[in-house]
Amino acid sequence: MCEVIAVANQKGGVAKTTTSVSLAAIMAKDDKKILLIDFDPQGHTTKSLGFQDKSSYDLSMTDVLNSVIQDNPIDISRLIVHSQEKVDLVPSNISLAGISNGLESVMCRETILKRFVDTVKDQYDYVIIDTNPTLGTMQINALTASDSVIIPVQAEPFAVDGMGDLLKSIQLTKRNLNSNLKASTSSTVSRLCLPMNVFSFVILSI
Known about the structure:
The chain has helices at about 15-30, 45-50, 60-70, 75-80, 95-100, 110-120, 135-145, 165-175, 185-190, and strands spanning about 5, 35-40, 80, 90, 125-130, 150-155, 200-205. With about 210 residues, the protein is α/β, with parallel strands linked by helices. The protein has a seven-stranded mixed beta sheet with strand order 3-4-2-5-1-6-7, with helices on both faces. Helix 6 packs parallel to helix 7 (about 135-145).
């Protein structure tokens, strides 16, 4: 059964992308079938896997959101790209920022990403969602679509500022949209090849 993992923190520069890409690559080396979703308009996950510009892929997360909102099918074979790390990727770019700003008026806007993920997750062991560094509709979409959430945090006092708002968003999502949201297993997080003197991980069970 597929597990969907969101990597989230509204603070930038805390290694969300590094966590997402490293976790995906290490799991792929363990012969797991991985889908990595770049849900950040900055597109750093996409670039990290070698897709530097829009010409290197046909479709992106912008097309995914549009297809769900308009209830039109999307060509999965054109959407998902395959990296050298044996990780499948749904790429993203700055165009995602434009559509994300218009989600507030969309019906059932919190479930847009989940509706897409539900159509592809049966083909994978894990789906990992790299989120954008804000609190808002996109982050709620990622939490609603996920089974578990990892919060990378820098090991310094100022890094935890604002964590209360994120934890509140997670609690509200669990209560109102996704009662199955749960803690990541310690074995999953322990696979990360990151400098543990620099980064810590908040594993949630709420």
